[in-house]
Write a structure and sequence with these properties.
The complex is a heterodimer. Chain A is of the alpha/beta class. Helices cover about 35% and strands about 25% of the residues of chain A. A six-stranded mixed β-sheet of chain A has the order 6-7-8-3-9-10, with helices on both faces. A four-stranded antiparallel β-sheet of chain A has the order 2-1-4-5, with helices on one face. Chain A is globular. By secondary structure, chain B is mainly α. Helices cover about 70% and strands about 0% of the residues of chain B. Chain B is built from 13 helices and no strands. Chains A and B meet through helix 2, helix 4 and helix 7 of A and helix 9 and helix 10 of B.
Chain lengths: ~260, ~375
């Protein structure tokens, strides 16, 4: 239940502005891949191209290929909705639907698409997803309460439960811990470790320790200056990237000597 | 007695140089008395008394504060006086209107059958009798109440779908395209259309489509929707705009189609604001007189059918009762009925505003733990 992603010669644009240039990367299935780099270097933009969320912004477009187990996401006739149901996403800020209960938030992917599901199946899916997000024990007695009443860390895990309830092949996470305290961060990192047994996980993070803790492979993005496009500088095993990187810029960044 | 050391009661050094708490009340009392004296000299007048008191109060308080507390505090006091003064001036007509309508309208409202009978068969003879012999005022506003409610209901049924769908187009699909920009421009223009023009438009439209002289509740409803649609578009647009983009993206990321996202995420999130906006739009048009006069005419009997026959409404009822009293020689009963109808209209508008608040509270996203 997980697929690999291969990106070939990808350029990402906002209208005429080239935001990310010439990315080639192979992301392994059933592993955690971390994107690191300074702010504004295009990691989040690039992440959003992996499930066609980038084009939600007016004027945004891409050139190049993103292959999900060999199928091009940007091929002619590909429906972005199909892509997104296979490649889930967790955002920087927890964003549970405010009008829905905890249970309905988990079932959102099913219910909003009007798929019919018996109550028994739905209950099983809610429990499975919430257990998968390590949230079941905390919320099992208040599934009918609104999701916005949870703490920030719980809300973020609820969003992860919502993402895995649609059983995607890949889960993209855009700085999922940046709004959370260390304890909630630890809970999410443990969760990412468990998720990689079933899913392909790609995570953008500003926290290099986090990248070192959770990921098998790390990609370092950098930008030459404001107004210049972001580029993938180096990509390799996390251990190598942090102990013995090839590029000078990577070494400067991971050792904190950057800029 | 031995001399004991009693602590000298002195003011804290931190509160030095401040006016005592009762200072404004003292100044107010002095201002009231002084201005009463001035008024007694030049002839007493309640309005003048209030005005002179206000000026004296402001001058006295600011001057005293300037002497004791310094110029910064004095300016603060002056600003407070101006703000409170403007507030009172703004409140004056409001309170006056409600008071006048209550005093004049209650006797009419208290008439038996005022809310449950129509003016069908009520002639000047009855009014003459009630004035000359003290018989109760007969006749009521039931037909006008029904007319107002039906016309407004039909207008709402026409305007809400059009207005809401327009707002959805503008916010979700418009993307600042020329079409979206021109719609926004024309909606703004429509907001300023005089209501009589809306009435003439609806009348001319139906004259051309159905036949000359077509005056029914439905024509009035069309005229009211011309006034209502821009209000609904504007308020719904604002409400849809403040739905965070994160929620839309969250739904897209779950593989939900755009129209389902709008229907099941965006609108439910904004529904409380949309519903209260619609209610306020209804309150805005329920008191319109001119467009109804030229589109629905006026009737004295009950008409439940908006598609045929002239129809009464509360504003036109008030208008005709005042301008053409049922009994020209004794207009008092008619004027009593008009004030009663005005009171009912104000109560309706107040109820609508109350309902808007209740709806907003009922639909607001819950934040319980």
């Amino acid at each position: 239940m997980s697929k690999r992603i291969d990106v070939k010669d990808l350029n990402v644009y906002y209208s005429k502005f080239l935001a990310v240039e010439d990315v080639n990367i192979n992301i392994d299935a059933k592993s955690v891949t971390a994107f690191i780099g300074p702010s504004g270097c295009g990691k989040s933009t690039f992440l959003r191209t992996l499930n066609r969320m980038h084009e939600v912004i007016p004027g945004a477009r891409v050139e190049g290929e993103v292959l999900l187990d060999g199928d091009n996401l940007y091929g002619p006739g590909v429906d972005p909705v199909t892509v997104r149901s296979q490649i889930g996403m967790v955002f920087q800020r927890p964003n549970p639907f405010p009008t829905m209960s905890i249970r309905d938030n988990v079932l959102a992917g099913v219910k909003l698409n009007n798929q019919k599901m018996s109550k028994g199946e739905a209950d099983a899916l809610v429990e499975r997803s919430l257990r998968g997000a390590n949230l079941w024990n905390e919320v099992k007695d208040r599934l009918a309460k609104p999701g916005s009443g949870l703490s920030g860390g719980q809300q973020q895990r609820l969003c992860i439960a919502r993402a895995i309830a649609v059983e995607p092949q890949v889960i993209l996470m855009d700085e999922p811990c940046s709004a959370l305290d260390p304890i909630s961060t630890l809970a999410i990192e443990d969760l990412i470790n468990e998720l990689k047994d079933q899913y392909t996980v790609v995570i953008v993070t500003h926290n290099m320790q986090q990248a070192a803790r959770v990921s098998q492979k790390t990609a370092f993005f950098n930008i030459a200056g404001t107004g210049k496009p972001g580029r993938l500088i180096e990509y390799g095993d996390t251990h190598t990237m942090f102990s013995n990187p090839t590029e000078k810029a990577t070494e400067d960044y991971v050792s904190g000597r950057f800029g | 007695m031995t001399a004991t050391l009693t602590p000298v009661k002195k003011r804290s050094a931190l509160t030095k140089g401040q006016l005592p708490k009762w200072a404004p009340y003292l100044v107010l009392a002095v201002a009231l008395v002084l201005s009463a004296a001035i008024m007694a000299l030049i002839g007493f007048h309640a309005f003048g008394w209030g005005l002179v008191s206000a000026i004296l109060f402001a001058a006295g308080l600011v001057g005293w504060s300037g002497a004791v507390e310094g110029s910064r505090k004095a300016k603060d006091k002056l600003a407070t006086c101006l703000v409170v003064g403007s507030f009172l001036i703004a409140l004056l007509p409001l309170v006056s209107v409600i008071w006048t309508v209550l005093v004049n309208g209650l006797p009419g409202l208290m008439d038996p059958g005022f809310l449950t009978t129509s003016m069908n068969g009520v002639t000047g003879a009855f009014d003459n009798k009630s004035v000359e012999e003290g018989a109760p005022v007969v006749g009521g506003i039931f037909h006008a109440l029904i007319g107002t409610l039906l016309i407004t209901l039909v207008a709402t049924i026409i305007s809400v779908p059009i207005g809401l769908l327009t707002a959805i187009y503008l916010v979700e699909y418009g993307n600042d395209r020329p079409l979206a920009r021109s719609i926004t421009f024309f909606v703004d223009v429509m907001t300023g259309i005089p209501s009589i023009v809306a009435g003439l438009f609806a009348a001319a439209f139906f004259f051309a489509i159905v036949g000359p002289g077509t005056k029914t509740g439905a024509v009035a409803a069309v005229a009211l929707s011309v006034l209502m649609i821009p209000v609904v578009v504007r308020s719904s647009e604002e409400m849809l705009k403040i739905v965070p983009n994160e929620l839309r993206e969250a739904a897209y990321a779950l593989g939900v189609r755009k129209w389902r996202t709008i229907l099941k995420v965006v609108i439910p999130t904004a529904i409380s604001g949309i519903a209260s906006g619609v209610t306020l739009a209804i309150a805005r048009v329920i008191g319109e007189t001119a467009p109804i006069l030229v589109t629905a005419g006026f009737a004295t009997s009950i008409n439940y059918n908006v598609f045929s026959g002239w129809m009464a409404s509360l504003p036109t009822f008030i208008y005709t009762q005042i301008l053409n009293p049922t009994s020209p020689s004794n207009p008092d009963p008619s004027s009593q009925r008009a004030w009663g109808a005005a009171l009912v209209l104000i109560i309706l508008v107040m109820l609508l505003n109350l309902i808007a608040r209740l709806i907003a509270r009922a639909f607001a996203p819950k934040t319980g733990r």
